[in-house]
Amino acid sequence: MSDARISPTAHYTATVWARNGLAHPALVGAASPWLYRGAALLLGPLSRLTGSPTVESTLLHRHHGIDRMLTRVIEDEGLRQVVEVPGGLASRGARFVARYPDLLYVEGDLPGMAEHKRRAFARAGYRQPRHRVVDLDLLATDGPLCLEAAVGPDFDPTAPTALITEGLLYYFQPPAVRAVLERACAFLGRSRAGHFFADLAVGGPDQDPLVRAFLLSVSVVARGRVLAHFDGVAGAHAALQHAGFTQAQVLPALGDARGRVDPTQKARIHLIDAAVYRSEPAHR
Ligand SMILES: C[S@@+](CC[C@H](N)C(=O)[O-])C[C@H]1O[C@@H](n2cnc3c(N)ncnc32)[C@H](O)[C@@H]1O
Questions:
Q1: How confident is the model at residue 209 (pLDDT cuts 50, 70, 90)?
Q2: Residue 212: left (phi > 0), alpha (psi -120 to 50), or beta?
Q3: Which of 7, 50, 95, 155 has its CA 20 to 30 A from that of 27?
Q4: Residue 129 pLDDT > 80, yes or no?
Q5: pLDDT average, residue stretch 183-212
Q6: Dihedral through CA 98, CA 273, CA 162, CA 149, nearest 10?
Q7: Centre of ligand 1 from the C-alpha of residue 165, in Å
């Protein structure tokens, strides 16, 4: 699916990040209140009727969950190199570079969206030499847009690295998802310790029936089919192992910024916390 089709959802998520104090000032203008209100009209009654989490709280759980996993490897393992694809209109890169100034943070997205974000940062006068937004296509296997080339020459392939993929796998067909997992593992496997953090909706026995309605509504906004993947959590776990990850967990996406879980809430989607180590994990 092209970025022109997916970008309405990037504007929608930008609105959620802005409403919840998670957006860099340069990206607050990327919010799209009309899209947000449209989705609330469409999905709000369904959440209220069933008592299931809203789309906004689901997005916040996934965003906070990935923030917590990234913080863990930065603080516990001393990791200092991050690639996030797609960066979309999200502000994690700017937030983390402000918190950890020695972090090298490369965000990639398809050329149109990457240019849009670079312009928004430039207009706001935001410039951080260790935070870059590059043109990158996660489906490209070679050429300048492929992962290995796009991260740039100052990226150290042997240094511990985290690769984040948030809000993307839903748009790919199952073979492309498997190819992305394999590519992610091969890319990270060059380093001493590589971490892969992502979100996904699992199909099969572990799928919340409301996830179906959620994905269907995103399909309407994105004008393309948005999918659940794998046969339950066990199927997702097996796919990660098959891709080559030496450690892998598939966890319900729940919890606020501090990891506090509201026991009345049910997860709609899952988070991948996978790693490939060349040797034993290095704890500081
Ligand atoms: C729903 S947005 C998610 C953005 C961001 N991660 C967030 O949570 O706010 C999806 C993004 O995926 C990007 N995208 C689509 N296909 C891609 C691909 N093959 N490689 C890299 N980015 C892609 C789109 O341009 C869009 O910015």
A1: low
A2: alpha
A3: 155
A4: yes
A5: 88
A6: -130
A7: 9
The tokens for 48 are: 């209220």
CATH second-level architecture of 3-277?
A: 3-Layer(aba) Sandwich (3.40)
Q: Residues near ligand 1 with C-beta < 6 Å?
A: 3, 6-7, 9-10, 13, 85-86, 88-90, 109-110, 113, 136-139, 166-168
Count other C-beta atoms under 10 Å from residue 174's C-beta: 14
The residue whose two tokens read 């879980």 is 261
Q: Hey, what are 280's tokens?
A: 């034993």
- Mean pLDDT of all residues in 152-162: 95
Domain limits of the chain? 3-277
The residue whose C-alpha atom lies closest to atom 25 belonging to ligand 1 is 3
CA 135 vs CA 83, 100, 108, 110, 278: distances in Å: 12, 24, 6, 5, 29
Residues 59, 23 contacting (CB under 8 angstroms): no
DSSP state of 131: E
Cis peptide before 157 (omega within 30 of 0): no
256 or 135, higher pLDDT: 135
Q: What is the pTM of this model?
A: 0.92
Query: What integer best gives the mean pLDDT of the chain?
Result: 89
State which H helix or E strand residue 28 sits in. helix 25-28
Q: Residue 163 pLDDT > 90, yes or no?
A: yes
**Centroid of ligand 1 to alpha carbon of 10 (angstroms):** 7
Q: How far is the CA of 171 from the centre of ligand 1 (A)?
A: 9
Residue 199 CB contacts under 8 Å (≥ 6 apart), including other chains:
62, 65, 66, 165, 166, 167, 169, 253, 269, 270, 271, 272
- The answer to whether residue 250 scores a pLDDT higher than 80 is yes
Find the mean pLDDT for residues 124-129: 94
Which atom of ligand 1 is nearest the CA belonging to 137? 20
